Amino acid sequence: MNDRSIHIPHSPLPRIVVIGGGFAGLELCKRIDDTKYQTVLLDRYNFHTFQPLLYQVATAGLEPSSISGPLRNIFKNKRNFHFRLVEVDKVCVDEHAVHTTQGALRFDLLVVANGTKTNYFGHKEKYEGAFPLKQTPQALALRNSTLRNFEEALSVTNPDERQSMLNVVVVGGGPTGVEVSGAYSELRNKILPCDYPELDFGLMQIHLIEGSGQLLNGMSKKSQENALKALTNMGVQVRLNARVVSYQNHVATLNDGTELRAHTLVWAAGVTANLIPGLEAYAQAPSNRLLVDGHQLIVGTKNVYALGDIALMPGGDYPNGHPQLAQVAIQQAKCLAKNLRHGTDTERWTAFRYKDKGSMATIGRNQAVVDLPGNIHFHGGLAWFIWMFVHLMAIIGFRNRVVILMNWIWNYFTYDRSIRLILRAGS
Ligand SMILES: Cc1cc2nc3c(=O)[nH]c(=O)nc-3n(C[C@H](O)[C@H](O)[C@H](O)COP(=O)(O)OP(=O)(O)OC[C@H]3O[C@@H](n4cnc5c(N)ncnc54)[C@H](O)[C@@H]3O)c2cc1C
What we know:
Layout: E1 15-19, H1 23-31, E2 38-43, E3 47-49, H2 54-58, E4 68-70, H3 71-74, E5 81-85, E6 88-92, E7 97-100, E8 103-106, E9 109-112, E10 116-118, E11 131-132, H4 136-153, H5 159-166, E12 168-171, H6 175-195, E13 206-209, H7 221-233, E14 237-239, E15 244-248, E16 251-254, E17 259-261, E18 264-267, E19 271-273, E20 283-284, E21 289-291, E22 304-306, E23 311-312, H8 326-340, E24 359-364, E25 367-372, E26 376-379, H9 381-394, H10 398-414
Parallel strand pairs: 1-2, 1-9, 2-5, 9-22, 11-18, 12-13, 12-18, 13-14, 21-23
Antiparallel strand pairs: 3-4, 6-7, 7-8, 10-19, 15-16, 16-17, 20-21, 24-25, 25-26
The structure holds flavin-adenine dinucleotide.
């Protein structure tokens, strides 16, 4: 830990420190009344990541810059706002201070919005070389590794080894797992055979392993069935009620003893809270989310709030807390920002209520599933267009929208993905 202090210009206004420029932190900082508060945003990256499209970066569909928003640029016109590129490594609730890689910082109000991290259920060592998909560098690492495997497969003469270099195992049948499997299937069926005419992509297997009895838990039964059917038609080998118990030397072992050889294993099997030391006393087992009241105040504190994936607000329609979705994070941030306009007189604050606008997942070209409130379900081409429209509108920045739209149009008509570069840092 660093004992220096982070320098922030003096202000007579109370200081709100926000940890994390994800969906929740970003929305909150945009909406904080800058005549009433000084805001300091801390993040370990200098950009916001639009995580729902990370899988397209990993599968060479989009450049990382098109799903990222530089934080300084987003807030260039905000007054009484300061950004610091730091990792927060300790929170001292009683001292009203956070400790970071660049020093300590005092707060009047703290908002913890640092999301989640990949959950290996306490046994990361069992999954050697598995690729998580939570951050942009991870998506790039996956893209590089997969493409390098294809290049190296050209020089391998042993047919089993060669097939293993092409194979992909995806662990977890939630939206990310479904989207990644669908994207790999499209690469295999339409794109890679043109790039590598010497490789037989008929040999490439894509396995999707899900521990429960259905894909897309949390979506309607209809959408779950439609997603399963679509993936199966695309040649993805889906195994339900199966768990990957280890991944060593490029072999994924399932709980029934089945062994799947694959040089690529994508871990999309769940997340756990990104708990910062100092906040353990406020975390709720088993997922370590921070227990908050209806105003997002961490229970047991007076001036520390939590938003988004890391917050747990059980009650009402959500006895186990809200789903860990971007919409929840954004709505919670809007509610807190609105309440903060009334100062800390909580008499005038309103409690958070989540307005469910529906959920969706894409599987591939002309294939998506959408559930809307009121028991309305779509699948196929219409759902795919709805999915694209919603994601395009949600992405940060007009430039990114145009770039993504152009990429999607190009990919649609040419069956091509232009970003198949293997980029390594250094020489
Ligand atoms: C691959 C993927 C696909 C998804 N698809 C969808 C989807 O289609 N629809 C949907 O609604 N939701 C989706 N989600 C979930 C959605 O992205 C999350 O619910 C949302 O990001 C939560 O927002 P947040 O602000 O709580 O956290 P995040 O957006 O994760 O932001 C956390 C921020 O905190 C920063 N941070 C973390 N620790 C520290 C630290 N110690 N110090 C400083 N900074 C730190 C991180 O860099 C990050 O910027 C997806 C998630 C993933 C991973």
